Amino acid sequence: MSLDGKVAIVTGSGQGLGLAYAQELARQGASVVINDVNPESAASAVASITAAGGKATAVVVPVGTGEAAKKLVDGAVAAFGRLDILVTNAGILRDTVLWKMSDDDFDAVIATHLKGTFTCVREAAIYFRENEIPGHIICIGSPTGQRGNFGQTNYAAAKAGIVGMVRTWALELKKAGICVNAVIPVAATAMTATVPYFAAAVEAADKGEAMPDFFRKDIGFGTIDDVTGLIAFLASDASNSITGQAIGVGGDRLQLWTHPEAAETEYRDGGWSADDIAAEFAGPWSGKLQSVGERMPALPAELDRSQK
Predict the structure, then answer these.
(1) Are 235 and 85 in contact (CB under 8 A)?
(2) 273: which residues sit within 8 A by CB, 6+ positions away?
(3) What distance in Å separates the CA atoms of residue 133 and residue 179, rounded to the nearest whole number?
(4) Burial degree of 267 (CB within 10 A; 0-12, 13-18, 19+)
(5) Residue 307: pLDDT over 70
(6) What's the pTM?
(7) The pLDDT of residue 193
(8) Catalytic: which of 127, 155, 197, 267?
(9) Closest among 182, 303, 282 to 231, alpha carbons compared
(10) Coil, strand or helix: which one is 17?
């Protein structure tokens, strides 16, 4: 799984999951471009990699524009001579329910997650095609983009859009030998640390203890380090035959998400009137409506911190 001689950009890699991705790619031998909006976070991330014997540089710029994407690709080529891998991880949250979400709340999340992914992938694809490099592009999705989540209209739209773009790019870039995949991570982060359901898992992680099996096995929730192996695999030549996929990882669980397919199909001679459709939903399709949101099992009593 060596990435020796490879060069990677990881957006939003000053801390959290992005930093873990960058550190793992460097550990596997890649030279890494750290990206963050905070110069101190970026410098600290670079130092953590170089102190471990890796190679890294920083490009401090907020993603979302074509100019920022070009700075990242140009920075990789200037520092290390080439580019082979792009991980689009940068993102922000502006959570609130629909009727309270402002235009700014919506636009900021879409600009960073969705447009930031688009502009960075576009710039990398141009570079890969012009230089005949069979690059690896890894875009970070979310369970929210797959199933929805209360209070996250903007985030759900961005993450669902990212997976839709990945499927399209896999088609468009296949002839050039460029692989494009989405990763759906589930891990203890600053965001999940505020969710009471995960309190026992986060508490264990903070103490350096193993998370309870319920979290790791039943719901596929683990540490940041549990996600990095998938990033390293998809960045490597071992994944050259894999493209257009949405792959989930967390705790002890690995998932291959389906692409949307029709759950039920019926045909009616002459087409469907409103009354015909009403009869279908009241009859054969009754009870077959698809669920929304993540389906989380009840916490075992010993892990339910709300009862303590």
Answers:
(1) yes
(2) none
(3) 11
(4) exposed
(5) no
(6) 0.95
(7) 79
(8) 155
(9) 182
(10) helix
Distance CA 219, CA 200 (A): 13
Q: What pLDDT does residue 308 have?
A: 60
Domain ranges of the chain: 7-187+224-256
Cβ neighbourhood burial of 219 (10 Å; 0-12, 13-18, 19+) = buried
Of 201, 166, 204, residue with least CA distance to 187: 201
pLDDT of residue 180: 98
- Residue 5 dihedral angles phi and psi, to the nearest 5°: 85, -5
What is the DSSP secondary structure assignment for residue 193, as one 8-state letter? G
Nearest to 120 by CA among 100, 135, 101, 106: 135
* Matching residue, tokens 């409103």: 274
Extended strands (E) in 159-220: 179-185
In which region does residue 29 sit, left (phi positive, over 0), alpha (psi from -120 to 50) or beta (all else)? left
- Report the CATH superfamily, name and number, of domain 7-187+224-256: NAD(P)-binding Rossmann-like Domain (3.40.50.720)
Please confirm, yes or no, whether 155 is among the known catalytic residues: yes
**Computed over its alpha carbons, how large is the radius of gyration of the chain?**
21
Residue written as token pair 């447009």: 115
Per-residue model confidence as pLDDT tens digits over 80-94: 999 999 999 999 999
